[in-house]
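Sequence in, structure out. First:
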Amino acid sequence: MTDTPTPVLAPATFQQRLLDWFDQHGRHDLPWQQDRTPYRVWVSEIMLQQTQVTTVIPYFERFMARFPNLRRLAAAEQDEVLHLWTGLGYYARGRNLHKAARVVVEEHGGAFPLHSLDEMAALPGIGRSTAGAIIAQSQGRRAVILDGNVKRSLTRLHAVAGWPRRPAVERRLWALADHYTPNHRLADYTQAMMDLGATLCRRGTPECGRCPFSDVCVAHARGEERRFPESKPKKALPTRTTRMLLLRDARGRVLLEQRPSSGLWGGLWSLPQFDDALALQAWLDIHAPDSRLDAPGASFTHVFSHFRLEITPQPARIGSLDSIGEARRWYDPDNPDAVGLAAPVKALLASLATFTLDMPPGP
């Protein structure tokens, strides 16, 4: 089997059809399409990974208002970056965005290494496709992209069998993407390829009747649009359990602790977590012996890509706590701090009613 399926159209014909469609039906007024600097394109590309445009727009605008350039982002604290990322999900993206900004400042003098696709792709959280998008969109230079939307369109167009992240399948898709990429109108072409997958060649309900390639699409000719791209072989998601301690003081504040910089919810602020009720009680016996437990809250499940987390909130009360240790803080739900919160924790904090406590306040 060769790496490249036989192209369905000559590159020039493919490009002309796509750009004609884009000129008439593409998206031309997205915030990051205005003033296409490498920085703005980069932030938008990272935010758009596995996230819809309509969700990203308000986050992008708030992010640009607070961090209008790369040096401002690099100088910020991670907490502030993750606070603006709260609710967007996939928080490693936010951490890598911050880390990459500091690398560019410290190792590249504050300017992206746009002369080198390899150096761009080596920056934290970027990779080959995002590097290509930044170069093509901001510089107008030829660079190939292969994000999820482009993979889906090319996979259907050629009926490429196999899960697109398998190395052999991905090589074939990169070869196709390179074959069709032009030497002109690169910003428009890359945006058009992303728009095609996002607006017409969608995952569940492709609009083949409006597609400029419906007459040559192999999956459409077979009536197998929904077969492609093929899904990753499924494995049953394991379930983990955790107890989240909702410890509140006499002022109604909630104790939070910062997660380690790597791993689950890295760098975000969360409720103290324990494997079971015994471990939670043991921690209270040591750190908050005067606390009182309330009845546990209703358990709920938060689903990650590789496991399910069953969370049981455990409310507790304390009059005061002299020392809360490092990487912990008191959080006032009525006057919230600007910190990054894990999504389930944000939901739990938002659901708290006005708090009253029938124990005397501490000194």
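Second:
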Amino acid sequence: MKLIGSLASPYVRKVRVVLAEKKLDYQIQLENVWGPDTGIHLVNPLGKVPCLVMEDGYVMYDSRVIAEYLDTLTPVCKLLPPNGRERADVKNWEALADGVIDAGVVVRLERTQRPPELQSAPFIDRHLLKVTRGLASLSDRLGDSPWCTGTHYSLADVAVGCALGWFDLRFPEIDWRTPHPNLARLHDKLHERASFRDTVPQA
């Protein structure tokens, strides 16, 4: 398998963590979707990463779809329950973590892709509020539990950990640790795992 993506993307990192946890072999092809010479549209018409290219040429995209598929390939380190409410709960955690990232990405694009005189402060504030509320919700849901879904490491933890790591990279001015020490503990515990240490996001 070949994974197309960047070392900064939290969505690509999520897939890389899953690949590491599942002990699956793959090659990574680095791609800057914002570069003038990007060819990402040739594999994903939406122009996004990650993309997972199978040995037969089939291309799968969207980190949530890819992660769910990878979890079916081997019983090693099962990250999703088989079905029912427990599975939906893990996917709900993942959707919330990805949604917090989505809001942050919008802010970053507004600040970096538009000239200062065209940037909208109310628009930025609206999406930063989504980030604040999303992080607070993740913290409230985690509570005092060792892992997002209780006692077991899952894709929920992977998604939350990748979100927190990305905010450290792109929004170092946002202090999420002080108001949410339980998220800080989870983040630190995740970085005891090789899958997280080996995929620290890089600009």
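Remark: The chain has a mean pLDDT of 97.
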